[in-house]
Design a protein that fits this description.
Blueprint lengths: L1 H6 L6 H21 L12 H12 L9 H4 L2 H29 L5 H9 L7 H33 L3 H16 L18 H16 L1 H16 L8 H25 L19 H13 L16 H13 L12 H16 L4 E3 L2 E3 L1 H28 L5 H12 L14 H27 L17
Antiparallel strand pairs: 1-2
Helix pairs in contact: 2-3, 2-5, 2-17, 3-5, 3-17, 5-7, 5-8, 5-17, 7-8, 7-9, 8-9, 9-12, 10-11, 11-12, 11-13, 13-16, 14-15, 15-16, 15-17, 16-17
Amino acid sequence: MSNTRRSHLPHLRPTAAVALGFLAVILSGATVLASPWGTAAGRSTPLVDALFTATSAVSLTGLVTVDTASHWSTLGQVTILLLIQIGGLGFMTLASLLGLLLAGRLGLRRRLGATAEGRGIDLGDVVWVIRATIAFSLIVEATIACVLAVRFHTAYEYSWGRAAWEGTFHSVSGFNNAGFALYSDNVMGFALDAWILLPLAFALIIGGIGFPVLLEAVRRTRAVIGGGAVRRWSLTARFTFVGTVVLGLAGTALVGLGEWDGALAQAGGGTGSGDGPGAGVRLLNAFFAGVSPRTAGFNALDYADFHPSTLLGTDLLMFIGGGSGGTAGGVKITTAAVLVAAVVAETRGDNSVAVHGRAISGDVVRQALVILTGSVTLVFGSTMAILFLAPTFTTDQVAFEVISAFATVGLSTGITPDLPVAAKLLLAVLMFAGRVGPLALATALAARTRGRCFDYPEERPFIG
């Protein structure tokens, strides 16, 4: 009878099951946040704001429609913290497993063969990856939390209890690239404090690189120290490390050059270039603002004061995002790197795409193109829709907000709370789609094969 019952249950694809699982977490969190116990004032929160906040937390975005510091009670803030942690651990674990499976590093074929022979699947490697990912996340979060807690206690005279809570909250938010903060101005009040900004920057960079790439680096280091056989760097690791450094430097230069006498001159309460903060503080904040869009969402500067050209460059940083196996969002560094390699190969006239002595298959290039095209279409369409719903805002502001939502960054020019309900719901959908969509699409495309026993006649249409 049990077999009969199971046969009537709908069969869900793994990606659909994952999406439904995270949707259930969002709805559960929104229920708590909408209750009177979730707010500091003891009044129910409008459902759209509770749903928006829960979606932002689980998708590791950080966009808010109400002030995190003053609107939510301790229960509400703890709920947000738990949603961030569940979302971060869930997505990092899934990305790590799927990435290793697609790369063939979990012996998938051998295990599937064992299943066909009735011997079952050995899930030892899978369990190890899950445990290692969770342990890695908790160790990094605990380390950053301790550093922040000590700083809060010694420099700001917080009690040890409050220092530990705020250190933990911001550490989890930073490592998971969520960008939620327990202050109404995010972390602008710490623009002069390197002991706050640099640990947060370290947390978001490590979280954005991801466990699989860091694990490869650790194993390679051990092999070098131990004198064992050293494997080549994978293209994923090369792309992620090089892309993280290049984009971090580019972001720092973008903000430094574009805002030296602008937003940077107002860091920490400065009023202008003449009596503003010194060069060291400006460089610190340029660095923090350069790495945060990928995709932490913390801001020590007011993005409403940014020049349109700086906002446009930040749009690009947000859209690219971070590593494929981490907590960052965007289309991912590897996707951008594959497309750049394809452009270089086509420019040179090469008949295949190759990087560092390794060929990249046409299937991977096409998958990257599909993800890029779908993402651009979704961002462009959503920007047009919100401009129609909220015509009082500029295209710069709306595009920034849309890309921030889709890339699950959380940076804002301050217009999100003032958007109409329909626009807020659209941003919530974008946050969910931006977090689940690229991973699900990449996995589905990589796992899908369609054989054809014939080829069509070739024709070359005009290009350009």
